[in-house]
Amino acid sequence: MTYFGFLLQFVVVPIVVLGIFVYRDRRMGKALPQSLRLLPPALVLVVLVGIALIYTTPWDNYLVATGVWWYDPALVTGITLGWVPIEEYTFFILQPILTGLWVLFLARRVHVVDAPFKPRSGVRVVSVVGVGAVWFASLLLLLSGWKPGNYLSLELVWALPPIALQLAFGADILWHYRRLVFVSIASATLYLCGMDALAIASGTWTINPELSLDVLLGGVLPVEEAVFFLLTNMLLVFGLVLGLATESAYRLPAQIIGGKVSQSERLTQ
Questions:
Q1: Predicted TM-score (pTM) of this structure
Q2: Per-residue pLDDT, 253
């Protein structure tokens, strides 16, 4: 399976299908819940795509340059930027769109909240401290030079800082929408793991067993790949929900949301 063939079958086609469903929902008047209309979804998705591309590019180039993973030259176009094939950059752009459309699809169908929102600074503090502890342990593992832990530690050291920022901003908001958040992350992660397993089995790309734990889920998928999709979908779902949730208005700069929230209201949040 070529890399572009993989993208077309398992990413582009689902994006088109989800896009049709989301468009049809809008045409039929099936709107997002009132509490998820702070910013235009398209705007939030564009921002997430830009961040994903900028933040992932140097990290993924490092992985390929150091032999953590590699691709079959016969299954890519041969166009590379740095050490990474152009197909990989395409995936950086497509995954946020795929996951984002899936969240928008689910948000119109999942009962998102059961009670009024209550700000909980303790939830934010505890979640950030917990993520920080895992990040520090991952950094120590990376610096230890233990080869089997290389890929996993690189993933955690890379992904946990922005996740911590999201949690510091709105862990309590994400908990408020926990049903939508959990269903979105779990389902998107399972889907992408299944597709990744097919690509690995067909030789499209390979994870270095010397720099990973060599624990294979289903006998095919390295556990680090499952962790990668879990982390990236957390980043995307957290970012989209925080961008859409009206509760975020109290914590965003007034310029972003048009000054709709007073300073006194911000202080209470």
A1: 0.93
A2: 76
